[in-house]
Amino acid sequence: MFPIQIEKIYLDEKAEKDSVSKTILKALPNIPVETVEDKRTLIKQFSSMSDPIGTGKRYLLITHFYGKRLKPCPGTSNHICCGYYVINAVTNCPMDCSYCVLQGYLNNPFLTVYTNWDDLLEEINYFLSRDKSSLLRLGTGELSDSLALEPIFPISQFLIDFFSKRQRAILELKTKSPNIDSLLDLDHQGKTVISWSLNPPKMIGEEEKRTAPLTTRIEAARRCQEKGYPLGFHFDPILYHEGWEKEYRETILQLFKQIDSRRVVWISLGGFRYPPHLKAIAEERFPRTEVFLGELFPGRDGKFRYLKEVRVDIYRKMARWLKEVNPGLFIYLCMESKEVWEKVFGWAPESSRHLNRLFEERVRGFVG
């Protein structure tokens, strides 16, 4: 089990009889449990602590979710987006990355799992039924790591089985975890892409606390590939620092010593970016972080980014190193403008819809 350090479980009385709740409690038999009637009061109490974000990662809240859990990827204004849809089954994460945007986004500090699965499936089914022609891409991992809680909350196993029976949809699980043992023998039908976020070992050690080492992530990816899963990789955020070129190139070489590039569906590149309020929160929680020391300036979307010339240089070099491995790799930029695409690749998608079509063509080449 990697890495879950839960000190106490709060069980919403509305979720007390759910089979999912019983599964979680069975997986954590030695953790004290308190049943709560009003989770809003509990959340307010924890939110007044000195470090509610860090504290909340050690406390598990089991509850229901009321409202939509399937939403378009938030993307960013004035930039090309890929048409991805996000499934929110868990919020918050036991890992603790210094740059994580959730630090300034979530109003609930608890590690929270939602047990009303039937409502979620009904919502996904309805969404898929509305589009009879497109190949839709959906995934977890936006508000939490997709696999970090898998040993106690097997939502990914559940979704893999669900998507294996769908003809016009593909699931992506994004992770920095090695918790893949329970997925290896599932009949996924090639409809689930398992993706790892990657950074050089130095950056992982300094800025991605309680995540799996690079070697462990690559080994987990190799084992999934052996079981027929298509793979994805996300170099996002790329952290610009002294020696970055050597470290990222070595990371790419290390990756493809074990991974067959022909079975990699997509690779994303994205430079470090953050909303203005995140810096103060992150620097208070991580006094030694260096991710904010570079020259970052507000962009058209209001987020702070490296200068355009710096980002273009980073992307060009990363794309070249990847293409040296396999010229046929599908590489895309996350949350970048058409102008940056053109400077990096010599071409750009005409629109977000065009990029979505390119994804469809790529995916159909893997899953038929």
Characterization of the model:
The protein is of the alpha/beta class. 36% of the residues lie in helices and 20% in strands. It is built from twelve helices and 18 strands. It has helices at residues 19-27, 39-47, 52-56, 117-129, 155-164, 201-207, 214-226, 244-258, 278-285, 308-325, 338-345, 352-367; strands at residues 8-12, 33-36, 59-63, 70-72, 85-87, 90-91, 96-97, 111-114, 136-140, 169-175, 192-197, 208-209, 231-238, 264-271, 273-274, 296-298, 304-306, 331-333. An eight-stranded mixed sheet has the order 4-5-9-10-11-13-14-18. A five-stranded mixed sheet has the order 2-1-3-8-6, with no helix packed on it. The protein has a three-stranded antiparallel sheet with strand order 15-17-16. The model has no long low-confidence stretch (mean pLDDT 94).
List keywords for this structure.
12 helices, 368 residues, 8-stranded mixed sheet, 36% helix, 5-stranded mixed sheet, alpha/beta
